[in-house]
Amino acid sequence: MALVARLLVVDDDPRIRHLLELLLSGAGHQVVLADSAKAALEHLRKETPDLILLDIMMPDMDGLTLLGRIRAVRRLAKVPVIMFTGGGKELEGPSRALGADLFLEKPVSGRRLKEVVENLLAWEGYVLPGGERVNSLEEVGSRLRHALPEEARFKLLWRKTASRRALLQNLLAKGWTEALLRRILPGEYDLYDLLGHLAFGWPLVPLRERAARVQDPRLASHLEAYLEEKRLPLEGNGLLEELAQALYA
């Protein structure tokens, strides 16, 4: 399955940021721009890009320091990082020592940059929490089963607010929610169905098909609000518990 790569570009020069955005978005990637190390860290606290392009010479925090902080986070430890700078070839050694995958000196041609980005992204397989890469959805499912209760208990736990919340918190803490929703099987699916599909072989049910199963207009209105806001599976009062029973029976 081909995925659109999510790239983070970190550079304090607005001209370079603009050029890189045009070049990489034109190649079909989703590009997020950060004008400082601080802005990059704020983004990385919430997101895990597929690749980071990082300038070294920046005023608030240099790229080498930022790279060290990135590699210290387990979730980000294996995200490919391209260091690029006009500061000189002597910075390549420290960049490599801190975990950079590639070092480029400015100026870099658009053709060369697209080539190295595609090469770093051209792995076959899926990224698991912690940055581990596996080659098949069967391997994803095998890892996921270890993070979930056995199938029958998983179904029961999901239908109650307290136990569903605990499951979600556990999956979020381990990085599974982001991996599933954005990196492994992105699309209009409920997290419950993604978990069941990968771990237990259930068929995938699109969100709109789930919505059609709910006949009670009270429940349908709550589901519609959920779909529009694109939240994780529902938590709440007794009415929402009734919705969960209707959806996940």
From TrEMBL:
SMART domains: REC. Keywords: Phosphoprotein. It comes from the Bacteria. SUPFAM superfamilies: CheY-like. GO terms for molecular function: catalytic activity; DNA binding. The modification 4-aspartylphosphate is found at residue 55. GO terms for biological process: DNA modification; phosphorelay signal transduction system. Residues 6-121 form the Response regulatory domain. PANTHER family: RESPONSE REGULATORY DOMAIN-CONTAINING PROTEIN, STRESS RESPONSE REGULATOR PROTEIN 1. This is Response regulator.
